[in-house]
Predict the structure of N-acetyltransferase domain-containing protein.
Amino acid sequence: MKLVLNEAKKLPKLKIVTLQVFAENGKAVKMYEDFGFKEYGRLPEGNLYKGKLVDDILMYKNF
């Protein structure tokens, strides 16, 4: 993730990066927060994971 974000910073027109992550994936959510991503919304039951509908967390990071 660090490498990807460092490369993204080199793109002068890039102002924001967005992503979606399963709400149940606490480790991934924490990692993204540690890299400066912030939650801006949720998509209830946005994905099917292991036969169960799970929420998606929508996140962004500004440059």
Observations:
- The CA atoms of residues 16 and 26 lie 23 Å apart.
- The chain is about 25% helix and 50% strand.
